[in-house]
Specification:
- This protein is of the alpha/beta class.
- The chain has one domain: 3-Layer(aba) Sandwich (Rossmann fold).
- 42% of the residues lie in helices and 15% in strands.
- Helix 2 (38-52) links the parallel strand 2 (29-34) and strand 3 (57-61).
- It is globular, with a radius of gyration of 17 Å.
Amino acid sequence: MAGKVAIVTGGGRGLGRAMAEGLARAGARVVISAARGLDEVRRSADAINAACGEVRVAALQADVTREDDCARLVGAALAGFGGLHILVNNAGRGMKYVSPTFLTEPTRFWEVDAATWRGIIDTNVNGPFLMAKAALPHLLAQRWGRIVNITMNHETMRRPGFSPYGPSKAALESETVIWSQDLAGTGVTVNGLLPGGATDTGMIPEGVPDTLRRQLLRPEVMVEPLLWLASDASAGVTGTRLVAARWDASLPPEQALAAACESAGWV
């Protein structure tokens, strides 16, 4: 990753924090963002920089639902680190915005507050579009870029009571496939990456028993497949999705890819 510059939206905690740290430790410069809670994202940047022994991560408050904020994020990468090569669309809103008891007391779709519905769709569907739209002029000009959309299991998209989170990620799957075709031959790839199971992040509500929490995937599961997707080696892979939990770093990359790769879309 030396010489590469990445943006990781929602990079202050959970999957975003783990992926930002993984990229930085591998040598990339990274801009991380949060829609709110600038102190948290700054603390994450400071901790990663301390671990790396130099400034490799910059923190910015930016809401991916706002076009101007997306442009500011891209501008921060260009001005602060001299380029942009990798966009990780990780910022998202989950079911806890609908109800803190969504795991045990599902909310039927017509019971969801309309403003909550719009907020989740705006972040999870429109946010990746606005970020990609802001980044693409630079990626296309250099004929090299990696867009990685963070998605989830198809089973979860179909789970009763998981509106609008499930539909928002299904839309992101469609974005991934269509964008990869639109960008064919440009040197810019678009792929999806998902943990492959329930993961110990802020998406999990408080009060989950420790016995269950210990069974959850760790956010760091995303790092190895992300680093491969962000590398030159992945140039021929686009419009697909990798299941991080299936990626075996002890295998040659071709075998690890074969084990982790799924068709992006509905089969």
